Amino acid sequence: MIVLGVESSCDETSVSLSRDGKTILSNVVLSQIDLHKAFGGVVPEIASREHIKGITVVFEQALKEAKLTPSDVDLVAVTQGPGLIGSLLIGINAAKAFAFANDIPIIGVHHIAGHIYANQIASDMVFPLLCLVVSGGHTELILMRDHFHFEKLGETKDDAIGEAYDKVARVLGLPYPGGPAIDRISDQGQSSYPMPQIQVEGFNFSYSGLKSHVINLVNTLRMKKEPIDVASMAKSFQEAAVAHVMDKSIQAFNAYDVKMFMIAGGVAANRLLRQNVEKTFGDGLLSIPAFKYCTDNAAMMSIAGYYQYQKQKDTATMALNGYSRLNL
User: Fold this and answer.
1) What is the pLDDT of residues 1-23, one digit of tens each?
2) Which of 114, 133, 176, 226 is in Cβ range 3.0-4.6 Å of 304 for a Cys bridge?
3) Residue 297 structural domain
4) Are 99 and 32 part of one and the same domain?
5) At what angle do helices 178-185 and 161-171 cross, to 10 degrees?
6) How far apart are CA 171 and CA 158, in angstroms?
7) Which residue, among 168, 148, 165, has the nearest Cα to 303 in the 3D structure?
8) Same domain flag for 260 and 128
């Protein structure tokens, strides 16, 4: 079964083709990071305009790289939400036009389901499993007992981990995107600045306190005209941030009889997190996506679309719409 995936939830325009929920035939990603760097974050209107410019190009290139024609495609899977509504609608309308013109069934897929199923590319899921979802907008622990069975055990009560990274990077004068910038510069520093120990109930997360602590600490040091070791501040923050998700992940892993642990989302590319996960869960069944499948891409959407269709068997109509907020 050949699935064409479309992803445009934020600032990447991507189309991918995959076979039988496993083999990636092509994965074209047109990134807008350089355009948004000047603003320190994604500007929705600019993102939407760039999607319009690039969407037909990535369709054509993905089919060309896969050596396929539209008649070879069995299913179209497109990100339905959550995300920037303008960006989502461009991908959805392009996917619907392609499906309608070529008489191909179409389904809408949840963006986070796509991130989770990026793991399926590298290794088959073994159920029940626990997945830590970490990104700019999400920090969640998901229990899966079968394909497309998502049970949310915990989530952030305020800021997501990726959002905290971006805001801390901004106050430290580091470039956008903040996560990779902090990850890189941390190697040059020492964990020498005091950080609060995060306390939150159950398997939930909280990052607003840690973020505010760093921002206030930096501002206080600047007002006193004291030097700031940016690398050490970044390292101190990162170690506290990663320790929090690791602590909750270990608690959940021990509380449930799961056979596999996975991470997913853009922050899954963080080197310190990957090292901690490998050290903690590496003796069992562990899945970590390849770096190229951590950030937004259509390969993960095509894989997720395949398993969603196999599990649910229902497709969408041309009334398929996008949603800025959407429950998993």
Assistant:
1) 999 999 999 999 999 999 999 99
2) 114
3) 2-118+293-312
4) yes
5) 70
6) 19
7) 148
8) yes
In angstroms, the CA 183 to CA 191 distance is 13
CB 83 within 8 A of CB 10: yes
Instruction: Name the phi and psi angles at 2, rounded to 5.
Output: -100, 125
Strand pairing category for 139-144 and 285-287: unpaired
Tell me the C-alpha to C-alpha distance, in Å, between residue 238 and each of 115, 169, 245, 267. 22, 11, 11, 11
Task: Return all residues near 283 (Cβ < 8 A) that are at least 6 apart.
Answer: none
Give the pair of three-digit tokens for residue 160: 């997501």
Which residues lie below 8 Å from residue 186, measured CB to CB, with a gap of 6+?
Answer: 231, 234, 235, 238, 272
CA–CA separation, 272 and 179 (whole Å): 11
Strand partners, 203: none
Establish if 323 belongs to a structural domain: no
Query: Looking at the whole model, is its pTM more than 0.85?
Result: yes
Dist CA 27 CA 253 (whole Å): 33
Q: Which amino acid is at 299?
A: A
> Quick check: 94 and 52 in contact, CB under 8 A?
no
The CA R_g of the chain, rounded to the nearest whole Å, is: 20
Total domains present in the chain: 2
- For 282-326, the pLDDT digits (tens) are 988 999 999 999 999 999 999 999 999 999 988 999 999 999 999
Tell which residue, 164, 253, 245, 162, has the closest CA to residue 208: 164
Model pLDDT for residues 223-256, shown as the tens digit of each residue: 999 999 999 999 999 999 999 999 999 999 999 9
Domain assignment present for residue 322? The answer is no
CATH number, position 190: 3.30.420.40
What ranges in the chain are assigned the alpha helix state H?
A: 33-36, 44-66, 85-101, 111-117, 119-122, 161-171, 178-185, 208-223, 230-255, 271-281, 298-312
Q: What are 300's two structure tokens? A: 């993960």
Task: Identify whether the C-beta of residue 315 lies closer than 8 Å to the C-beta of residue 107.
Answer: yes
* Helix pair 230-255, 161-171: axis angle to 10 deg: 170
